[in-house]
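Dear colleagues,

As part of the handover before I leave the project, I'm documenting each prediction I ran so the next person doesn't have to rerun anything. This entry is a single chain, and its sequence is reproduced below.
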Amino acid sequence: MNPEKIKLRMENGQTLEVVVLSKRANAIQVVIGEGIHNVKCELTPTRMGLSYAGSIMGRELVYERSRAQVEAELELLNPALRKPR
């Protein structure tokens, strides 16, 4: 099983590839690092909903995809998720 990876932009302009633990429209949980040196971070949508942001050890991380784009990705991965009961 291949874990989903996304690229985040750090506050200094560098990009960082991280592993996704869980992905929902209201929050994305990611793991930074590997082994015993890993750290979890939760990215939440910004006020305008144009990106997701979170901080780890005082550093800001930004996932530059809008909430609508993430919802569309989730819909493609699991179309049965939005069906009425």
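The mean pLDDT is 90. The first strand starts at residue 5 and ends at 10.

All the best with the project,
I.
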